[in-house]
């Protein structure tokens, strides 16, 4: 039995047994091509459309066909950035985002800048929040897209998406949000929040990897990003992975049923960790906010004077798995662009921060074990660092 303690659910989550059961059944019984009209194809198509209906309802989409199945958050983000730019470049070549978006947004934006598009990167403060006044000031007649994440994947900042949606709705721009870290944990309503486009990924809520969706409001038109056949109403080519889609839908269903309960559990675990570290006399600070403007499941902590790579390695040897930042850049030697945006490149936080992110299988006993391990290694590593500096 695996006795490791996994507290890196913002990186990915363990696939739920109910999801595995659903997918296994679909693999065994529904192996047809959903784009064909034979018996097996019709069977697969029905399961695909039933899942699409559930996904649409989960964000209060008005129509089921506003859900475009993709391979996950990265594809959805890339599709929005590149294809909206292609479709609307005659109307304008200005895009607004934040300085701490996921790389799936920032890197395609870098490509667009090489092609002559202008990008405004809104700054974020030490709470991981933007200024709505800055957003209003940045909007122009030639702004075609505003893309701002719902929850930051490294520090857990929950941005004011409802207010952002209201501001963008009064402009000519389309509003996209990367909701990968929020979906399944926080209630999302594309109607109330006036969201035009939304990216979601299945593996962040105990579903399978390589499946997600792009919400695309009716009337939002741009060319397909993945070219080939006419699947997904000609919006995304490729034979649909029906077992993964139904597994994703089952994961969504499970999280929708207990969303409030899960949030309360995550908040309790976060406070247990923070209080335990205080009681142990550990010198640390929360990056961002603990409560106000914070998602419940992500906690970013600065352990003062302790290199994050050394601390992460020692925790791993103890069987405790956390992260130094985004899973997408964990192998990089560069500092976290999120922490640089919040605190500056010279801040020691960029090299001395760990992220702990909770999921549905974490327990108070695991947090106690984490506190004990941190109480053991943080003073030891800090002493080594101090002696090395002397």
UniProtKB/TrEMBL annotation:
State the InterPro entries in the record. Aminotrans_V_dom, Cysteine_dSase, PyrdxlP-dep_Trfase, PyrdxlP-dep_Trfase_major, PyrdxlP-dep_Trfase_small
Single GO MF descriptor = iron-sulfur cluster binding
Q: Carries keyword Cell inner membrane?
A: no
Q: Which reaction does it catalyse?
A: (sulfur carrier)-H + L-cysteine = (sulfur carrier)-SH + L-alanine
Look up keyword rRNA-binding and say if it applies: no
Q: Which domain of life is it from?
A: Bacteria
Cofactor dependency: pyridoxal 5'-phosphate
Q: Where is the Aminotransferase class V domain?
A: 5-370
Q: Which UniProt keywords apply?
A: Iron, Iron-sulfur, Metal-binding, Pyridoxal phosphate, Transferase
Family statement: Belongs to the class-V pyridoxal-phosphate-dependent aminotransferase family. NifS/IscS subfamily.
Q: What is this protein called?
A: Cysteine desulfurase
Which organism was this protein described from? Limosilactobacillus fermentum NB-22
């Amino acid at each position: 039995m695996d006795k490791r303690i996994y507290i890196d659910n913002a990186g990915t989550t363990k696939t739920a047994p109910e999801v595995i059961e659903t997918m296994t059944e679909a693999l065994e019984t529904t192996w047809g091509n959903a784009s064909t009209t034979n018996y097996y194809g019709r069977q697969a198509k029905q399961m695909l459309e039933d899942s699409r209906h559930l996904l649409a309802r989960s964000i209060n989409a008005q129509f089921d066909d506003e859900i475009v199945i993709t391979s996950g958050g990265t594809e959805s983000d890339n599709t929005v950035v590149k294809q909206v730019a292609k479709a609307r470049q005659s109307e304008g070549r200005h895009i607004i985002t934040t300085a701490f978006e996921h790389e799936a947004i920032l890197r395609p934006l870098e490509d667009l800048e090489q092609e002559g598009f202008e990008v405004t990167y809104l700054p974020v403060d030490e709470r991981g929040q933007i200024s709505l006044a800055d957003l209003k000031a940045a909007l122009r007649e030639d702004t075609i897209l505003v893309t701002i994440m719902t929850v930051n994947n490294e520090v857990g900042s929950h941005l004011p998406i409802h207010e952002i949606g209201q501001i963008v709705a009064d402009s000519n721009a389309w509003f996209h949000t990367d909701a990968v870290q929020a979906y399944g944990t926080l209630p999302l309503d594309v109607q109330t929040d006036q969201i035009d486009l939304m990216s979601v990924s299945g593996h962040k809520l105990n579903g399978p990897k390589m499946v997600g969706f792009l919400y695309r409001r009716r009337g939002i038109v741009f060319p397909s990003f993945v070219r080939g056949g006419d699947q997904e109403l000609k919006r995304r080519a490729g034979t649909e992975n029906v077992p993964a889609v139904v597994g994703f839908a089952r994961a969504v269903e499970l999280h929708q049923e207990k969303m409030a309960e899960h949030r309360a559990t995550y908040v309790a675990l976060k406070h247990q960790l923070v209080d335990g570290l205080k009681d142990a006399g550990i010198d640390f600070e929360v990056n961002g906010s603990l409560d106000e403007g914070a998602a419940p499941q992500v906690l970013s902590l600065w352990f003062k004077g302790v290199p994050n790579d050394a601390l992460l390695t020692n925790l791993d040897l103890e069987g405790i798995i956390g992260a130094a930042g985004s899973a997408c850049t964990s192998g990089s030697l560069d500092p976290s662009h999120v922490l640089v945006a919040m605190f500056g490149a010279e801040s020691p936080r960029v090299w001395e921060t760990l992220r702990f992110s909770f999921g549905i299988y974490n327990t108070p006993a695991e947090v106690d074990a984490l506190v004990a391990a941190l109480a053991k290694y943080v003073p030891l590593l800090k002493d080594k660092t101090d002696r090395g500096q002397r």
